[in-house]
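Subject: design request, 358 residues
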């Protein structure tokens, strides 16, 4: 390319590198739709045994059309998700990819994240207008696939770490739950976090609240299926006025930054907590400054925050903390809610676990 801006010289090497990056990003964006299709149709699960297969065999196993499957496999092989053997014209799903794409109980399962990502696209027209108007978008106004996708995105991490790592990192909470405690889960969604805790601590009782009625109904069904409905209840309520008193543990999983009144929510936690109770706040892992979050994980969270988190808070006339609020901002919210003690219990590449006490 010979043309250049009259004021700024163009470095063709840098331009070509950036164009290569854009090509990769475009491929990833378009492939997300095919990952969701493969997940929804059970294409990955049908070949999770790692044995070689042909497009026709996969189509037969999944009751799909071979021509579509063949084209889908071309994309998956080009993406490095499925291996192609040119000598035999057969495909294989490697065991590592199987853990991430086919085995929903795996701690590495990631297909649910792509359900969330593809659901976000339906909100583009509204979010585009909101960039100009400053309005928000209520959680319930999104495509319904988003609600299930969000649960499937978070559940593997909760299942792998909540009971094994996060709760034991809190001061004395594990022992309380084992002997019998009263727990409330605010913003419970489909109830994944609530149910995981109930399964691990059968002597405790759990209540999940969410302002999205369809999610509450889904949570009730999941609790019944998991066999914990005798000690778990779900109901519609807001974070600033949910019912109950004298809770031993109050939990906010990946939702405090979404709220319209996070300080009000913190004050209500303080009012409903026992004097020796604990507030556990799980938030997306983030630094306090933009430059600390310019990472692959930060990239994901900033995108989700632009499409989901900031609009959700603005729809409630909230402060729009965003999905990369950071520990300093969150600690300020917690202390303004009346908590004297707040500490980082632990941090992972995806999660920040804070513990607050009156």
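Subject: RE: design request

Done. Sequence follows.
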């Amino acid at each position: 390319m010979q043309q250049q801006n009259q004021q700024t010289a163009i470095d063709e090497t840098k331009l070509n590198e950036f164009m290569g990056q854009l090509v990769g990003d475009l491929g990833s964006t378009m492939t997300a739709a095919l990952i969701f299709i493969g997940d929804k149709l059970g294409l990955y699960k049908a070949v999770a045994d790692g044995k070689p297969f042909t497009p026709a065999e996969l189509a037969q196993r999944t009751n799909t059309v071979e021509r579509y499957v063949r084209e889908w496999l071309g994309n998956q092989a080009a993406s490095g998700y499925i291996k192609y053997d040119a000598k035999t014209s057969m495909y294989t799903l490697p065991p590592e990819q199987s853990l991430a794409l086919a085995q929903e109980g795996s701690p590495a399962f990631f297909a649910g994240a792509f359900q969330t990502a593809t659901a976000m696209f339906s909100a583009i027209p509204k979010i585009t207008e909101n960039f100009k108007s400053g309005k928000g978008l209520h959680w319930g106004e999104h495509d319904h696939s988003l609600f299930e996708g969000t649960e499937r995105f978070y559940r593997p991490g909760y299942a792998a770490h909540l009971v094994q790592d996060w709760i034991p990192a809190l001061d004395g909470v594990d022992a309380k739950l084992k002997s019998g405690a009263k727990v409330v889960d605010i913003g419970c969604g489909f109830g994944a976090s609530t149910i995981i805790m109930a399964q691990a601590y059968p002597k405790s009782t759990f209540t999940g609240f969410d302002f999205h009625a369809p999610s509450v109904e889904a949570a009730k069904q999941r609790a019944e299926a998991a066999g914990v409905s005798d000690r778990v209840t779900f109901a519609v309520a807001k974070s600033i006025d949910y019912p109950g008193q004298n809770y031993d543990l109050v939990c906010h999983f990946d939702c405090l930054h979404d709220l319209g009144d996070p300080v009000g929510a913190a004050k209500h936690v303080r009012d409903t907590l026992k004097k020796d109770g604990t507030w556990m706040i799980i938030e997306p892992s983030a630094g306090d400054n933009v430059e600390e979050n310019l990472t692959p994980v930060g990239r994901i969270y900033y995108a989700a925050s632009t499409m989901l988190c900031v609009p959700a808070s603005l729809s409630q006339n909230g402060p729009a903390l965003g999905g990369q609020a950071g520990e300093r901002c969150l600690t300020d919210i917690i202390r303004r809610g009346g908590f004297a003690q707040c500490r980082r219990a632990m941090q992972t590449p995806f999660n920040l676990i804070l513990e607050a006490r009156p």
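The longest strand covers residues 273-284.
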